C-alpha cells in the first residue's frame, strides 16, 4: 500500500491526478481523455484483463463489507481471486459502512463496467453484495436498478437460482418503496424457480417476503399463511436466523389479528433464537415486538421491561429504533424514555 501512496504522490506532483478529498484522487479531464485514447490502442486482451481485475477488486471488497455489515446474511460463493487482486481489509461494520459510502458512485460505475465487459456472473454477485448497503441507507432506486441489471445478467447465463434471487430482491425493494403490486409480482416469480432446484431455504425466504408484502396490503391471513410456510421450511433446513425473523413476523401478525397468546409465544421464541445465534439486531426487534404485544393485550407493566431490553440493545449497537423505543417508554411513564427513574419504580 505504501508503494501505491508513493506512486500517487508522484502523479500528483506531476499534475496528472488531484486529491479532491482526503485519500480520494481523480484525473484531470484532459488526462482522462488521453488515457482513454491510449487504452484503446492497447491490445484487447490486456485491456479486458485490467477491467476484470478492477471489477474483481470491488466485488470482493463489497462482499467482505456486506458480511461485516450483516454477519447473519446468507453468503454467496466467489471463485478464486484473479492474480494480483487484493481486496481492501475491513475490520468491522463501521469500516464497511464507511467504505460503501465513499465508494457508492464508484460501485455503481463498476456494475456498468462489468455489464460492458460481459462479466455477467460478477454483475449478479456485485448487485447481491450491494443489497445490504442500499437497504440500510434507503437507496431504493439504486437497489432496484441494480437488481434489474442482475436479472438480465442471470437470464443471459440461464441461471435459475440467480434469476429467482433477483426477483426476490426486487420484491423486497419494491415493497420498501410502497410499490406493493410490483413487489408481489416479483416475489411470486421466485418460488417456482427455487422449487425446480429444491432450494428450500430460498423458498422460505421468498414466502417470508410474500408474507411481508401481503401484510402491507392489509391481507394478514394470507401473510400469516406465507409466514407459517416459511417457518416450516426454515425448521426443516435448520436455518436458525430465518426462523428467528419469521417467528418475529408471525408474532406481529398474530398481534394484529388479536391472538395475543400465540403472538407472545412466537415473540418469546424469536428472542430466544436471536440470543442463540447472537443476532443483536434481531434480538432488539424481537423484544420490541414482545413489548408491542403485551401492550396490545392490555398489560403495559409487561411491555415496559421488554421495551427497556430492546432499548438497551439498540443503544449498544447504535440502532435507529432507539428513539422510537424511548418514545414508547415515555408514553407509558413520563421520563421513562430519558433514563430517569420515577419514584417507586
UniProtKB/TrEMBL annotation:
<dbReference type="Pfam" id="PF13424">
    <property type="entry name" value="TPR_12"/>
</dbReference>
<protein>
    <submittedName>
        <fullName>Tetratricopeptide repeat protein</fullName>
    </submittedName>
</protein>
<dbReference type="InterPro" id="IPR011990">
    <property type="entry name" value="TPR-like_helical_dom_sf"/>
</dbReference>
<feature type="region of interest" description="Disordered">
    <location>
        <begin position="318"/>
        <end position="345"/>
    </location>
</feature>
<feature type="compositionally biased region" description="Basic and acidic residues">
    <location>
        <begin position="318"/>
        <end position="330"/>
    </location>
</feature>
<dbReference type="InterPro" id="IPR019734">
    <property type="entry name" value="TPR_rpt"/>
</dbReference>
Amino acid at each position: 500500500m505504501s508503494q501505491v501512496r508513493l506512486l500517487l504522490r508522484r502523479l500528483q506532483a506531476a499534475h496528472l491526478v488531484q486529491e479532491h478529498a482526503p485519500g480520494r484522487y481523480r484525473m484531470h479531464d484532459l488526462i482522462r481523455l488521453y488515457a482513454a485514447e491510449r487504452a484503446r490502442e492497447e491490445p484487447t486482451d490486456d485491456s479486458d484483463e485490467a477491467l476484470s481485475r478492477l471489477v474483481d477488486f470491488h466485488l470482493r471488497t463489497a462482499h467482505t463489507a456486506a458480511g461485516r455489515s450483516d454477519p447473519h446474511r446468507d453468503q454467496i460463493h466467489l471463485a478464486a481471486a484473479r492474480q494480483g487482486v487484493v481486496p481492501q481489509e475491513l475490520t468491522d461494520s463501521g469500516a464497511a459502512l464507511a467504505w460503501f459510502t465513499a465508494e457508492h458512485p464508484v460501485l455503481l460505475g463498476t456494475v456498468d463496467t462489468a455489464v460492458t465487459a460481459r462479466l455477467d456472473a460478477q454483475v449478479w454477485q456485485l448487485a447481491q453484495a450491494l443489497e445490504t448497503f442500499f437497504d440500510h441507507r434507503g437507496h431504493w432506486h439504486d437497489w432496484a436498478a441494480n437488481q434489474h441489471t442482475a436479472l438480465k445478467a442471470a437470464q443471459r447465463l440461464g441461471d435459475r437460482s440467480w434469476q429467482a434471487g433477483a426477483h426476490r430482491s426486487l420484491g423486497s425493494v419494491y415493497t420498501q418503496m410502497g410499490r406493493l403490486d410490483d413487489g408481489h409480482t416479483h416475489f411470486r416469480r421466485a418460488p417456482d424457480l427455487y422449487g425446480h432446484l429444491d432450494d428450500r431455504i430460498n423458498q422460505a425466504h421468498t414466502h417470508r417476503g410474500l408474507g411481508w408484502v401481503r401484510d402491507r396490503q392489509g391481507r394478514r391471513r394470507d401473510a400469516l399463511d406465507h409466514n407459517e410456510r416459511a417457518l416450516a421450511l426454515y425448521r426443516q433446513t435448520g436455518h436458525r436466523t430465518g426462523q428467528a425473523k419469521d417467528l418475529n413476523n408471525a408474532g406481529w401478525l398474530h398481534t394484529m389479528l388479536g391472538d395475543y397468546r400465540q403472538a407472545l409465544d412466537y415473540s418469546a421464541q424469536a428472542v430466544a433464537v436471536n440470543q442463540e445465534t447472537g443476532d443483536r439486531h434481531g434480538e432488539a426487534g424481537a423484544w420490541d415486538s414482545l413489548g408491542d404485544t403485551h401492550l396490545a393485550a392490555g398489560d403495559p407493566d409487561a411491555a415496559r421491561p421488554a421495551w427497556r431490553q430492546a432499548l438497551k440493545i439498540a443503544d449498544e449497537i447504535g440502532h435507529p429504533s432507539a428513539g422510537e423505543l424511548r418514545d414508547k417508554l415515555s408514553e407509558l411513564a413520563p421520563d421513562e424514555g430519558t433514563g430517569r427513574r420515577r419514584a417507586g419504580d
